[in-house]
Amino acid sequence: MEGFRQLWCQPHRPLSRLLFLRSISSKIFVKGLAFSTTKEKLAEAFSEYGNVLNAYVVLNKAKNRSKGFGYVTFAKEEEARNAQMAMNGQARI
């Protein structure tokens, strides 16, 4: 909690830094992906919930396959929240 307090209580944070921190909330972490999942499959699965700006699947470079998790970035925070609630606990992508 101490680190969080320091982040928001420092009075001289530049505006650009605050805007960057705000935009993070439109990116969601996705776990439980199948090893065969590609960024295209991930984007397609989440596109019904809004405008997907970016889908990123973390790869195991030695095996050239998904590590089982990734990130999806939406254009709006509300889209990210809706996708997170709808896809939580769903079958593997």
UniProtKB/TrEMBL annotation:
SMART domains noted in UniProt? RRM
- Per UniProt, which keywords does this protein have? RNA-binding
Key word Transmembrane present: no
TM stretches of this protein: none
Superkingdom assignment: Eukaryota
Q: Which InterPro entries has this protein been placed in?
A: Nucleotide-bd_a/b_plait_sf, RBD_domain_sf, RRM_dom, SLIRP/GR-RBP-like
Which Pfam families does the record cross-reference, listed alphabetically?
RRM_1 (PF00076)
What region holds the RRM domain? Answer: 26-93
PANTHER family xref list: HETEROGENEOUS NUCLEAR RIBONUCLEOPROTEIN 87F-RELATED
What is the protein name for this chain?
A: RRM domain-containing protein
